[in-house]
Design goal:
The protein is of the alpha+beta class. It has two domains: 1-32; 50-55 and 66-151, Cupredoxins -  blue copper proteins (Immunoglobulin-like, Sandwich). The protein has one helix and nine strands. It has one helix spanning 3-31, and strands spanning 50-52, 68-74, 77-79, 82-86, 90-95, 104-105, 123-127, 132-137, 145-151. A hairpin with a 7-residue loop joins strand 8 (132-137) and strand 9.
Amino acid sequence: MSPTSRAYLVIIVLLLIGAGFVVAKQHKNTSNTATAPTPTSTTQPENLGTISPSASASSSSSTPTPTTQAVTIQNFAFAPLSVTVHKGTTVTWTNQDSASHTVTADAPSSTAPSSPLLSQGQSYSFTFTTVGTYTYHCTVHPTMMGTVIVTE
């Protein structure tokens, strides 16, 4: 085998190994999706929100795209600090800090967000179905505060 052939063979092997790592990482990321607990009785709220390792959405051209709003958790703050959305909008908070955080309504109810502890890279989504002003905070870091204003 010539030196040139060996070099091409080495390059091909390295590319195949790299592709294997990418596929394995994607499989790991999609298999770690977590969701909020399923209600066990009819007295629990229906909209518990969901968490996931990353915020991703897909849509088809025949299905209307739901309204969404992103909020980033970074540098121990919610950004943007306040968002105004229409009723039916899903807000997704994504933790970019190395510290864990929560999204917890100041006035807990079935129509307000209440996330579990979110690690770095995890997201929590909540669909607002009732008009109103929702103030929230991080239970781990109470000085972190934000607001969602829901309009018709």
